[in-house]
């Protein structure tokens, strides 16, 4: 089996290779992922078989948080910086395979050309957008709630441990 990028698929032993709906009985429901993670951590601290547990995000949403206004200055600075990093990388590779030994010329040339091309590419791309997206944002996949499921053989024990957590007592 391969991934969409052509590499071999890596899964944990015993888990299905194809996307499948989760199985198990609900043992807890939480408003945030942090709370669900805390519940599973509590189960692990109580020597519970956490291999039987799954956290399931329900009512998924894609949240795009706007982090700033996009200006020509930011566009050009970002393009120049990313181009410079790529140019530096190419320059370092070229300096490793060059005949001159420890010459800094390929590094400086790569850095310079990368900076210029990054700047030009960013400017052209931003100009072509014609101001349709003059902001920067980050996207995040979040859920409306997080359910903790457990395989039926241990679900009752998980419920008891999570009830103790909810009441504020720690494992004995």
From TrEMBL:
Listed InterPro entries: GSP17M-like_dom
Ranges of residues in domain General stress protein 17M-like: 27-97
Alphabetized, the UniProt keywords read: Membrane, Transmembrane, Transmembrane helix
Classification via Pfam families: YflT
Give yes or no: UniProt keyword Transmembrane. yes
Entry keyword annotation includes Cell membrane: no
Q: Which residues cross the membrane?
A: 75-97, 103-126
The UniProt annotation puts the region (Disordered) at 1-22
The name this protein goes by in its record: General stress protein 17M-like domain-containing protein
Q: Which organism is it from?
A: Pseudonocardia kunmingensis
